[in-house]
Amino acid sequence: MGMTTPPRTLAEALRARDDESLAGLLRARPDLLTPVPGDITQLATRAGTRASVVRALEHLDRFALQTAEALAVAPDPAPYETLLGLLTGDGRDDGEHRGDADTAIGDALPAALTTLREQALVWGEDDRLRLVRTARELLAPSPQHPSPTGLGPTVAEATAGMSPGRLQDILATAGLPATHDPVSAVTSLSALFTDRARMGELLDTAPAEALSVLDRLVWGPPYGEITPNPTPPVKWLRDRGLLLPVSTRTVVLPREAALHLRAGRAHRVPEPQPPAVEAVANRDPQAVDSAAAGQAFLAVSTVEELLKSWNGGGPAILRSGGLSVRELKKTATTLDVSEPVAAFWVELAYAAGLLASDGEADERYAPTPAYDDWAELPAQDRWVHLATAWLAATRTPGLVGGQDAKGRALSALGPDLDRSAAPEVRHRVLALLAALQPGTAPDPETVLARLRWERPLRGASASAGDTTDLRSRIALWTLNESELLGITGRGALAAHTRALLDSGPAEAAALLAPLIPEPLNHVLLQADLTAVAPGPLERPLADMLSALADIESKGGATVYRFTPGSVRRALDAGQSAADLHAFLAAHSRTPVPQPLGYLIDDVARRHGHLRIGAASSYVRCDDEAVLNEILADRRSATLRLRRLAPTALAAQVDPASLLEGLREMGYAPAAESAEGDVLITRAGTRRTPPRTAPVPVPGGPPVPDATLLGAAVRAIRAGDTAATVVRKDPADAPPASSGSLPRTTSAETLATVQAAAMTGSALWIGYVNADGAASQRVIAPVRVEGGFVTAYDHTADEVRTYPLHRITGVAELADDATS
Prior knowledge:
Radius of gyration: 39 Å
Number of helices: 34
Shape: extended
Strand order of the largest sheet: 21-26-22-23-24-25
Oligomer: single chain
Mean pLDDT: 86
């Protein structure tokens, strides 16, 4: 579609676009699709709404935003040369490198304008560039919202309420001819400020202190406060219009004067090119992959250790949701990490669907059934599952420990940790790392600088380089979390991560598998009641050993320590002393030390000597002396024990509390059933009901696919045809108002539709659907029967059937409209 005359409105500019260009607009600004606009005019109206324009401005890069800001302070409309001059200046401050910078601006400006045009923020030909009105209002200066450029209002805007007499005084003091016409006075003053030679002569006569005042205002903010009796330098500037009053105590530097002082530049530092991501180190790619693979295996092991520790039921959930500070500290101690790192692992397990609430009355966290399936996968597949969940999650563990907008503490697994920007920032950070050579570790500050250029903060914080914005914090957390998770190794992106981003999970797992050590089926027992695992252990061996011993230290080799409590734990799980001896002999590369055998036999001999049941609860023992010893012990007072028989005591606490209390006193009791059998308590059996992983919180409308875009463009084109089509009105009908539905009698509607079906011509109809919504459509009737008309609907681009009684009226299209 082409235009022979320049567009007069944004709607006309959009109407002149081809379908591919309209689809590009809808792809860049998907909020315009909800719902699909009825025609081009509706699309243009929606594209100019404040919420949509704000969202579009927030997605511009630094230079495109600077271009829009320059247009906001340029005349409307502005020719291309004027816009270029605002970005490059008038050449009066050319320094050693200024020429190269201006060349870069000139090279980048066409692409920035193309971006603004594609997103319907700018329209018009190069000789009449127009920024959409809402964007101009958002970016233009005002006392309440200073311009991002730091420029103030024009002379005309600043003197709008000034008395003619005051204007005459300014003209006289500035050496300008007097005029009684306020418009001419404003024009004369503006001409002075934009005339390089005359403005230079005026400033040459200014006191040095007055020039210092201008230096403080020239790059913004342009507003300043004055006293009722201003100092001589301020009075000199005010008398010549270089400072114009906004109120009794506020003055402003007019835009024309500021631009002269800035050598015509709207921005102090235009940034036409994105800053480069610089390297801090170039490492061996194989060393990077090995380090990342080792960390990936550690990540998988850490998540598994976390969920094992919560196998029997994890910590209770706060009433407001999430983990308490005490429980997070306890988890950090268990994992031997800091609290922020513990929060990351907990949130990662939750995002991966391996951890959830059990939904009970006494609500607690516990592993989900999906954890059992995940634990059976090879290590590389388990890592891919975690990494994929992390990339897509909107949960932001870095916020844990901070405060929300109401000053409430943010807790791990709490309800307020979702940030919709997190997935996008993570993907962008990794994309920047992927663009570097393999083995290159980037400088984090240059990564942040690049992200701020690609998505700057609008306003003063952007120009100040504010690093406290959420996107920058997420980027820093991404770099740290990537190292923890094995996404990167020694600061550089790993090969398996590149494969995950480019080719998918299967390729990433295939590259990672050879780098992960094979699990071992043996340990090394030592005489000091420890066992050393020289590498990762096979799952059955690791599970049994974790029940029989406590982990003392981790690293390249894991050290387990055998204690009476750990051996009792294995006996509680149903193992016998003979089972434990056989297990150790089968899986140790060294002989079983004698002290370890004695420890197992000694604990097994005493295990179950005491029996616990429900009375509330009771203790029974064949050895009366042991029961006498328990009753005499002051530590048993909280259990409220009393003797029922020489070999039995009753307690007023539940069996679990009684069992735990006696164990803390140094005994080794065993629980028994109502039949007197020893109860075996197996670890790892508590699971939540089936749970799905948390759904990421959307940050806005999803990017539409090609099918939806094509259908939307066809619908908008067809609706525009229906809204703008030229139709024939009956001679005796009053002229139809814009947007009104055609009105004809039922007989006229039937006769016109039947005639159109025979001749194959198109009609313009008004239609009211079953919900009462009215619309205009252009149809080509094919068949009319049984009170229905079957027609090709140009508006919907498909064949549809309409009840005749819902058609409000019909009108034939004009001859030139059907061609």
